[in-house]
Amino acid sequence: MRSSTIVHEVAEYKKRRDELITQDRALRADHSREPLSPAEALAEEVIRKLKTTEAATLWSADYPSIPHPFPGMEFLTGRSIIMQSKLFEILSKMPKGSLLHGHFDAMGQAPALLDLALKQPAVHVRCAERLTASNIQTVPPEFLCLPEDMYPDLAGSVSLTDANYQHTWISAQLARELFDPQLGGPGGFDRWVLAAMTINPSEAYGTHNTVKKVMLHISVQRFRSLIATVGFQIWEKFASTFGVYERIVHYVPIFREYFRQFLLSAIEDGVSYIEIRMNLTYKVVAADAKTELSTREIFLILDNVLKELTAEFKQQGREDEFIGAKIIITAFRLFSVEIIETLLHGCIALKKEFPHLIAGFDLVGQEDVLQPLIYYAEPLLKFRQMQQDAGVDEIPFLFHAGETFTDGTEADMNLYDAILLGTKRIGHAFSLLKHPKLIEMCKEREIAIEVCPISNEVLRLTSSMHMHPVSAFFNHGLRVVLSSDDPCIWQCVGLTFDFYQVLVSSELTGIIQLGEVAKDSIKYSMLSPDEKQRALVAWQKRWDKFLEYVAGFGREVLSAHDTTSFT
Amino acid sequence: MRSSTIVHEVAEYKKRRDELITQDRALRADHSREPLSPAEALAEEVIRKLKTTEAATLWSADYPSIPHPFPGMEFLTGRSIIMQSKLFEILSKMPKGSLLHGHFDAMGQAPALLDLALKQPAVHVRCAERLTASNIQTVPPEFLCLPEDMYPDLAGSVSLTDANYQHTWISAQLARELFDPQLGGPGGFDRWVLAAMTINPSEAYGTHNTVKKVMLHISVQRFRSLIATVGFQIWEKFASTFGVYERIVHYVPIFREYFRQFLLSAIEDGVSYIEIRMNLTYKVVAADAKTELSTREIFLILDNVLKELTAEFKQQGREDEFIGAKIIITAFRLFSVEIIETLLHGCIALKKEFPHLIAGFDLVGQEDVLQPLIYYAEPLLKFRQMQQDAGVDEIPFLFHAGETFTDGTEADMNLYDAILLGTKRIGHAFSLLKHPKLIEMCKEREIAIEVCPISNEVLRLTSSMHMHPVSAFFNHGLRVVLSSDDPCIWQCVGLTFDFYQVLVSSELTGIIQLGEVAKDSIKYSMLSPDEKQRALVAWQKRWDKFLEYVAGFGREVLSAHDTTSFT
């Protein structure tokens, strides 16, 4: 029989335990915020219940093509299961706040982009050799927008799948029509092109070690030679998709519509504000497929599309759904110090003409093998003074840093420079957990972390979402925003997929935490104080609506039989 | 031309940067210790240089059977490359201090264990059906030590590979002799048995998702049914190897020699003190293969082997190489609360009789699916009082906790209980980084973390060493000891492989950090203060010798052409 002493002792112990757990979680956004409203408390309960239930049902079922599914598994393999998730459907309705980390050319949707291309007679395609059943997996398409006077004679055009085909250009429309029925006809053409625009599971997971191969102690020269020799599949493939986009997107008639479309798809997904990373060296050709636009002309188009869209939403009384978009000017990490300095001047000139459009400056390209931030210390340190001399408002740094799982490498040490150079947010900061002092500084200075869960997993920084540092970021009280990086390549739309992966791979994270993340994505955006205020008010309205929607089927979910408790 | 202002500014910046890096790394053992001696500084330089060189040569070469090798890659795949590493050879000579986390039955070497079994006529084997080329991969051996009066008649024994074989017992020696030459003869028999004692790459990496399959929200009942149905390969295979060891090791004539052998192999590898986890419910049968030994008799054998070994080393003037070994009593996480309380009493009884042998108490079994520590709160909270009532010295808790990549699950929350219950060290603590408050407490209370790098990777908590939290543990100033957990299953000897994986997967970690880890493995062991003092002095002597050894080929290594600098 149990003595009353031990009963008391156990009770005391459990009290101490609860206190410790509370202390340990105190820094989480969903714990440090004001108490939940009844509607929020209900939504939290409903979503947690649904998550638990789907883990034991949807994710424990057997799927012929997916040996061992689990919530938070490799995204490209698990996507088909995610699409069947009620939880996913609910999240797609959630107001997400801002999308703060995405690269212009990879923010659309591949099929929509292909449709745009097929509408343009100027778009032509060729490939290195005749396509057959045996080489269609390995021979990629090459696109080019040709001026009318260079169109190949339609009658003489030979299909890419024809025995006589010889690396000649053919109109994309015609190439599609004439595509060999044995290879799927027009549908087969579409699949062939889309495969070159996206990463498939075997590409990502069959080669998931290679990211590490060239990671350690390596010069840019050696990296290039490695790509040429042993190959570097996942990043090689990743880079190659941009090659395809570039040839299609950078043509004014497509460019304009593409931009409009990806904005609309993000808005559709509950995103109300977007910051888009775009290279300052970005090239676009006019409708004649000859004349190259100036950067100024490119930005006039962007500005124009945004003004149109804003007007349309206003007209439809949907102002709350779209606050706007800004551009983060980027430069490639392979450029010389001199070129970077020139580009910084270009960035300032743009800020002068489009003050409302320019959100900040960043350097891009794979950190593990390209130049570290410290290499550009001189121009980057000059930047602030250059802005003052030019009399423009501050252009904040919004650096990629620590997009690596190494420690003490140049890529990892970019975190020191990003912070010392005064970055307002950090892109990825995947290796931040290894740096006690930097965690502290990010918290003190409220430097938000742009976490791109699916991107990190597909590019093999982590084998699944469970090992992704984002849960630790939450618990350490770091400000986190979730983003999609290059959604087109992993065939995502907006932010729902990334929100879903983070939600289902953590026991602690619920809908309230995601709500705080959405709010922070507005708070830590580069919107002006007034714009932020307006965006937050609009978000709150939509959030309250969302909570009602969740409550709508709350009873049904909560009454469902629980198959999953630990006994 | 550059203004002197900017030149000055850059210099200032680099100074601030160096200061920040120093601050950020200040908590590392290799930074917070006293300055390096000249011999240490040289060794550090030599080892770093060798690591860099081998990353660019040994690890960048092409291997027919290993598509994309890299330092720190999946251990079972990379082992053959590691064996060719000069760095590995050097580490094997390093004094490692203590091995503090290993499970008795899996601490030997599979081939040696098989040899021991083949020397014993009592050891018999059978399998479910006749072995053929098509089923030899899937039909495992079953061993049993038979009493002499139950030996099957030798003449009538049928080979496991014979057409007439029918699940009958046959002497292991004979089974080996008669093994069908088509299946490799005696060598084929050995390979077949060893495959059942170890995990191979395809088992570990072909099924690396399955650990997560049953991880979330699941009852023990459901876990069992899942194993029975869809399977749970990696942990299932992991558990199955213990089934094989048990039938061989738990026979006195083998048990005694097996224990002696694994102690010697660890000592040979530079380990001078060992704490071994052993179930209190451990069963051993006497030489007659009938009589079961009492726990007391088992411990008399262990005590006796240790006394012999100590005497032998003293006689050979090698006292510095072997300080001794102690047992951490363990109980399985599936037992009832009542059984655990009974076992705690048994542990105290043992401590009374073998005070020098008992190092502490722990609970074992996969945390993700078995009972959490809180389930046993009552008996565990009583334990201290029980010890005082029995008048024995304190038996510290040395709990496994957080051997999971989840957050907020029972397995992850075991960390709260391990710490609140006063554990002196934590086994694995793989999920500790997610807990800011617990990191703090582990540092304040000097709770050392028993990190088992290869075990965590083979059991798929992490896809490679780069994502293992150990580098972060170092940087956060946590006390870390490295251990091998179940070296027999991954065919490791001693600690060199684990030291190697940690060294090559981090840019920051060098030989000095590993030296501090070795010292801490003595400092945070359960040795008495006097024993610790003796062990530390002995270790220092051997460390100084090791530094001389490294210096021996220092010049050669340092003069080697550097192919790897970042330019």
UniProtKB/TrEMBL annotation, chains A, B:
EC annotation from Swiss-Prot or TrEMBL: 3.5.4.4
Gene3D superfamilies, alphabetized: Metal-dependent hydrolases (3.20.20.140)
Reactions that this protein is recorded to catalyse: adenosine + H2O + H(+) = inosine + NH4(+)
Cofactor: Zn(2+)
GO molecular function: adenosine deaminase activity; metal ion binding
SUPFAM superfamilies, per database record: Metallo-dependent hydrolases (SSF51556)
Domain Adenosine deaminase, residue spans: 232-534
GO biological process: adenosine catabolic process; inosine biosynthetic process
GO cellular component term of the entry, any: extracellular region
Entry keyword annotation includes Metal-binding: yes
Places the protein is found: Secreted
Keywords from the UniProt entry: Hydrolase, Metal-binding, Secreted, Signal
Family label: Belongs to the metallo-dependent hydrolases superfamily. Adenosine and AMP deaminases family. ADGF subfamily.
Protein name: adenosine deaminase
Species name: Tetrapyrgos nigripes
Native organism taxonomy: Eukaryota, Fungi, Dikarya, Basidiomycota, Agaricomycotina
